[in-house]
């Protein structure tokens, strides 16, 4: 039994479709076509002054590791960090990814603020979520309070922090009108009750007149 050309073409097509997921998509240069990913969750931490701490920026990429940096948010800008023996970065290899670690050998009040990492990829610049550091110190009664930086004040809130506060404010606005609504409802009920009491004597008077 001879196989028709149409059946052969259909068989080849199914073979190609089956192999595509296993072969992957490759670009002209022979490299896998995909961008790097930064896996940083937005959160905040309290750190005691004088202790060591590290911020981690996990990076997943396909072929060559992208150029990744840490920066500190100030208003709408993210400023490059000045590294020293007290504050430096290093790469660490882990399962299926690399981690750029920002290491603080000794945390100071000036380290208060929000940090994020960014990577330069062929498609442009990708940025991670921010991590906010609050530097605290122990007092004599073993309690903690927030330290101010060397300028005598905390750094201005970042854009992300401002948006979060604005969202909280908008969500609380409807609650502000709730007491007014309850007060109006109570007044309405009291008026209805008072009007009902006024109608009862008038009904009694009408009955007496009829008699």
Concise description?
With 211 residues, the chain is of the alpha+beta class. It is 33% helix and 32% strand.
Describe the secondary structure blueprint for this structure:
Layout: H1 5-23, E1 37-38, E2 43-48, E3 53-60, E4 67-74, E5 77-80, E6 87-94, E7 97-104, E8 113-121, E9 124-127, E10 131-138, E11 144-146, H2 159-176, H3 178-210
Features:
Immunoglobulin-like; elongated; 211 residues; alpha+beta; four-stranded antiparallel sheet; single chain; seven-stranded mixed sheet
Task: Give a written overview of the molecule.
The chain is an alpha+beta fold and 211 residues long. The chain is built from 3 helices and 11 strands; from the N terminus they run αβββββββββββαα. Strands 2, 4, 5, 8, 9, 10 and 11 form a 7-stranded mixed beta sheet that branches. The chain has a 4-stranded antiparallel beta sheet with strand order 1-3-7-6, with no helix packed on it. The chain has 2 domains: 123 residues, Immunoglobulin-like (Sandwich); 34 residues. Helices cover 33% and strands 32% of the residues.
| Number of domain modules | 2
**Estimated structural class:** alpha+beta
Q: What would CATH call the homologous superfamily of the largest domain?
A: Immunoglobulins
Task: Provide the CATH top-level class of the largest domain.
Answer: Mainly Beta
Fraction of helical residues: 25-40%
Strand share of the residues? 25-35%
Number of helices: 3
- Describe the main β-sheet briefly: 7 strands, mixed
**String of helices and strands:** HEEEEEEEEEEEHH
CATH topology of the largest domain: Immunoglobulin-like
Rg measurement, Å: 33 Å
Quick check: average pLDDT? 76
Euclidean distance between termini CA atoms: 116 Å
What is the strand tally? Answer: 11
Per CATH, which architecture of the largest domain?
A: Sandwich
Low-confidence stretches: 13-29, 150-156
InterPro entries: BTLA, Ig-like_dom, Ig-like_dom_sf, Ig-like_fold, Ig_I-set, Ig_sub
Protein name: B and T lymphocyte associated
Keywords: Membrane, Signal, Transmembrane, Transmembrane helix
Organism: Rousettus aegyptiacus (Egyptian fruit bat)
């Amino acid at each position: 039994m001879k196989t028709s050309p149409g059946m052969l073409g259909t068989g080849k097509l199914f073979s190609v479709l089956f192999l595509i997921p296993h072969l992957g998509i490759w670009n002209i240069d022979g490299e896998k076509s995909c961008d790097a990913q930064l896996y940083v969750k937005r959160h905040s931490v309290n750190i005691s002054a004088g202790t060591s701490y590290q911020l981690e920026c996990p990076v997943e990429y396909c072929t060559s590791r992208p150029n990744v940096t840490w920066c500190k948010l100030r208003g709408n800008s993210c400023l490059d960090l000045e590294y020293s023996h007290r504050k430096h970065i290093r790469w660490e290899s882990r399962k299926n990814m690399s981690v750029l670690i920002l290491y603080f050998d000794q945390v100071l009040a000036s380290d208060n603020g929000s940090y994020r990492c960014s990577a330069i990829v062929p498609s442009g610049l990708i940025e991670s979520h921010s991590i906010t550091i609050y530097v605290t110190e122990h007092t004599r009664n073993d309690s903690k309070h927030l330290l101010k930086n060397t300028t005598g004040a905390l750094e201005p809130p970042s854009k992300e922090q401002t948006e979060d506060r604005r969202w909280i404010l908008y969500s609380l606005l409807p609650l502000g009108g709730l007491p007014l609504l309850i007060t109006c409802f109570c007044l309405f009920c009291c008026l209805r009750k008072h009007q009902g009491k006024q109608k009862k004597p008038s009904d009694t008077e009408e009955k007496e007149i009829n008699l």
